[in-house]
Amino acid sequence: MTSEQPAPQDPKAQLVLEAATKIFLQRGFSAATTDMIQKEAGVSKATVYNRYPNKEALFFAVIEKGCSNTISQVKAIQASADSIDKVLAEIGYTYLKFTLSREGLALFRTVAAEAIRFPNIADAFYTAGPKMTLEIISEHIARAADRNEIKVQSIGVEQAASLFISMLRGEGHMIGVMYADSVPSQIQIEKWTKNAVDTFMKAFAP
Question: Mean pLDDT of residues grouped by 10 in the chain (206 residues)?
Fold first, then answer.
């Protein structure tokens, strides 16, 4: 991520960021230009460059914006759930709701398409989103294991968390990536989440 970002209350920076999100997710990183973003935002070039020095900085900001809201919601679950199955169910639903949304899928496609040419962009996305989610789930699983709610010694905490995320994403993410018009219903997201939680709890029951 860039070391300096505009102040969050800066209204023009928000206009530029919203325009950048739209352009990047429609056209991809390589095809998008700062001219397109400037015109979409309805501001001057000076306004864009005073807040974001280049296109890469803009895309980093889009990644951070896309991931931060979901991560904040996932972190907040820590105090609201009292058992590991409830924690995983809440986290799973929150995570899938963004991951399988139009914006979440478009962001994933855009980053994946540029990963070879721009590995720093892929790293920024992985660090801000998937890695952070894995760490949060790992913390919950470790605490649940200490309470003897589950036993994950056979594969370890982080692998157990990774397995849960893999079950959670599963077919739904593949369908979403491949079919741009595919948007799952709330019922479907709840079903995928429940299947992942139920399978996880049966596999690691004490």
Answer: 56 92 93 94 92 92 89 79 88 94 93 92 93 95 94 96 96 91 92 97 94
Q: How far apart are CA 44 and CA 35, in angstroms?
A: 9
Whether residue 169 contacts residue 99, with contact meaning beta carbons closer than 8 Å, is answered with: yes
Token pair in block for residue 162: 């990774």
Q: Report CA dihedral (165, 25, 75, 141) to the nearest 10 degrees.
A: 10
CA 160-164-170 angle, to 5 degrees, is 140
Instruction: Give me the domains of the chain, ranges plus CATH numbers.
Output: 66-203 (1.10.357.10)
pTM comes to 0.86
Give which of 156, 149, 201, 196 is closest to 173, Cα–Cα: 196
